[in-house]
Design a protein that fits this description.
1 helix; 3-stranded antiparallel sheet; alpha+beta
Length: about 80
């Protein structure tokens, strides 16, 4: 699945600790699970921060992350 654009429809935890967090992906019609660490996301994506955290936990370099325009700080 190298360099194939997929739509991530959600995230889930698998029982296999080595795989950890997986992205539920769809490419055209078939769906499947891909380890989040193996997925590349857009820097300003909502999934950017969880993706970076997942890769950091696995001692992998995180991809660049930017704060999205739609993110806002919670009111205290």
């Amino acid at each position: 699945m190298l360099d194939v654009t997929v739509e991530a429809t959600g995230f889930d935890l698998e029982e296999d600790e080595r795989r950890g967090l997986v992205a539920l992906c769809r490419h055209q019609e078939p769906t499947g699970n891909v380890a989040v660490a193996d997925v590349r996301v857009e820097p300003a994506s909502v999934a950017g921060c969880p993706h970076a955290a997942c890769r950091t936990r696995l001692c992998l370099p995180a991809f660049p992350v930017r704060r999205s325009r739609v993110w806002s700080w919670p009111e205290l």
